[in-house]
Structure formats: C-alpha cells, structure tokens
Amino acid sequence: MGSTRTPLMAGNWKMNLNHQEAVVLVQKLAWTLSDKRHDYGKVEVVVLPPFTDIRSVQTLVDGDRLSIGYGAQDVSFHDSGAYTGEISAGMLSKLGCSYVVVGHSERREYHAETDEVVNAKAHKALAAGMTPIVCVGEGLDVRKAGDQVSYTLAQVDGSLAGFTAEQVTGLVVAYEPVWAIGTGEVATPDDAQEVCGAIRARIREVHGDAAADGVRILYGGSVKAANVAGIMEKPDVDGCLVGGASLQVDEFGGICRFYDMPVL
Ligand SMILES: O=C(CO)COP(=O)(O)O
Fold first, then answer.
1. What does the domain layout of the chain look like in residue ranges?
2. Tens-place pLDDT, residues 94-119
3. Does the first or last residue of the chain, that is N or C, have fewer Cβ atoms within 10 Å of its Cβ?
4. By C-alpha distance, which of 92, 110, 109 is closest to 101?
C-alpha cells in the first residue's frame, strides 16, 4: 500500500452482538492486540457495532483508554425532528464515533439506498466531524459482464458528489464487490487492485493529487487472517472492511496484524 497512508482495519459487525457481547469482544480484541504490542499508529483498528452497542463500547474505550476506534453502520440524512427510527450524525458524534459507514451494499439492496441518499448521508457525517466510509462495488451480473470498473466509478461519482478536494482527502472509500460479501468468495488481490486503483485514478482526475494520495481505499468481501496479507500487498488497497471475520477475535486480530501473516 501507499507509504503515507495509515492502513485501516474496520470491523463491520452488521446486525450481530448485543451490548454485553460487544463489550466482551472489544475487551478480547484489546487484550489480543496489547499482548502483541500492537502499534495503533501503524495500523488503525476500528469496530462498527450496531447502534445499540455504541454507548457500551464508548464507555469501555474511554474507561480503559483503548486505542481502538469505533463508529456506526449507518446514519440519517436528516438533522433532527420527526423521523421515527432514525439516528442523526449529531447523536453519533456525541457518542464519540469517528467513522460512519454509508452506502453499504446491504443498505443499497434491502433499503433501496441510491447514490443520492448515500451522498447526503456522507455529507451529514462529515459535517458532524466524522469520517464517512463510503461503500461501492458491483454485483455478480456486472462482474460477469466485465463492467466492474465503470459501474463502481459511477457509484463513486454519485456518492462523492459535491465534496471538496480537501474533504475527499480525509475520506475512506470501501470497495466491496457484492458477490464476495459473506460468500467465502474472496476477490483475488489483482481483482481488488484493479478497482481500487481505478477509484484512486478517478479521484486524482476529479480532485487532484493531494486527494488521491490521501484518501484511503479499503477492500471488503470475505477477508480473513489467511488471505489478508496478499490483498494488503496491493498498492491501492489501504485496509479492509471486514464482516464475518470481525466477530472472531483471533481472525480480526490477525487481520490487524496483516504484516505478520504469510502471503498465500
Ligand atoms: O460486507 C462486508 C463488510 O462490510 C464484508 O463481509 P464479509 O467479510 O462477511 O464478507
């Protein structure tokens, strides 16, 4: 990966673990990483629990002064008011969240989120002082047709509309090919590089060198301790957005220590 960008390993727990289980997992993760004298400045570690767990994670992280960061899996594009069931960016930043996932493929698919909605959510997250993790990626049909680059770049254009170059510099974009999510079907490191490289090139074209060199681009989709090292060797992959494996402390701990892992 690029030498100036700090790698980011983010665990998207999805709709798993209640607040008590969340505390146990974060404690175990902190213990595992401290046992290995993990340098959080070298690889940033973030967990993304369900909303109902965030307060408990905050209390643990603050109380024990852990260097593990945390964030949310979604945010409303409304600021406040009569929007039953919604959670605002202001509420999340007040809980100390530093990241918010927007546009995960599961939200795009099951909640009909468009690039416009994703873009509005990303703007709200940034305005509240959090870093959006903007997810993009193609489904199987698009991949089979060989259109993964153009499809994903169109999502990037739509989801990042209206951002300044300075804002893009601090963003995180996650390339998650839908066919590789939760299927055990991991994209090859070359597949990940192809699209992550194209995303960076598009950002360079639209926002310039500083934005392209600063933005962190993650790969997500069936990442495990056993396959992470090969993916992280690619120059345009700056980290991983991890689903299933982030629920297992040994797996996620291994992913955070990717440089200790063999390249298979
Ligand atoms: O969707 C993902 C992370 O956001 C990837 O999930 P898996 O790692 O379970 O494939």
1. 8-260
2. 999 999 999 999 999 999 999 999 99
3. C
4. 92
The active-site residue out of 38, 104, 123, 207 is 104
Question: What residue spans of 36-138 are helical by DSSP H?
Answer: 54-63, 89-94, 105-110, 115-127
12 is in an annotated binding site: yes
User: Token digits for 225?
Assistant: 């301790």
Is residue 207 part of the annotated active site? The answer reads: no
Architecture of domain 8-260: Alpha-Beta Barrel (3.20)
Q: DSSP class of residue 38?
A: -
The ligand 1 site (C-beta within 6 Å) comprises: 12, 104, 176, 181-182, 220-223, 241-245
The answer to whether the CB of 258 falls within 8 A of the CB of 29 is: no
What's the mean per-residue pLDDT of the chain? 96
Residue type, position 97, single letter: C
Type of residue numbered 117: V
Q: Helices marked H in the chain — which ranges? A: 19-35, 54-63, 89-94, 105-110, 115-127, 140-144, 148-159, 165-169, 189-207, 209-214, 228-232, 249-256
Segment 187-209, tens digit of pLDDT: 899 999 999 999 999 999 999 99
Helix (H, G, I), strand (E, B) or coil at 98: coil
